[in-house]
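Hello Y.,

Per our agreement to keep a running log of every chain we model this quarter, I'm adding this entry. I've kept the format consistent with earlier entries: sequence first, then predicted structure.
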Amino acid sequence: DKDINKVLNKSYTARSKNKGLYNENYYIFDEVLENKLNEEQKIESYMENALKNKEFKIVYQPKVFTQTGKIRGAEALVRWERDGKIIQPGNFIPLFERNKFIVKLDLYIFEQVCKDMQSWKEKYNFEPNISINVSKEHFVNENFIEEYVKISDKYSIKRSQIDLEITESATIDEN
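Predicted structure for the entry above:
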C-alpha cells in the first residue's frame, strides 16, 4: 500500500494479533489476516440486523441423570442462522466480546430462554434448570443483575432454575 493510513492500520492489526503470543517476535499482515479482518467486518455489518431479525437461535444441550436417563436440565447454546446456513459460535463470539455486542446478544439469549422455560412450564409442566453463558463484559455494568432479574420475573422463572455460567474468556485478562 502507498497510503500511510492503510499501512499503519495493517501494522496495528498485525501487532494486535501478536499480543499474547510470547513465542512470536513478529507477525506479518498477510492475506490470511486480511481475509479474517474482512470477514469480521462483514459479520459486524450484519450483527445488529441479525438480532432484530431473530437470526440467533438457541439449541439446548440436555443434562441427563445417567442412572435414570431423565433430563434434569440443559445448557443453552447460541447458533447464528443466516441465509439458511449456521454460523458457528467460534466465528462470531470472540468478535462480539471484543466489540461488546456480546452484552446485547447475551440479554437477547437470556430472554429467549426465559420465554422457552415459561412455555415448557405451561405446556408440559416441565421446569428444568437451564445453564446460560454470560460474558465478562456484563460485570462492568452495575445494573447487570437487575436486568436479568427483571427478565426472569417477567416470565415468572424461579432464579433457582437458572445457572449463569461465566464464559472462559472472563477469566483471561487481555490487557
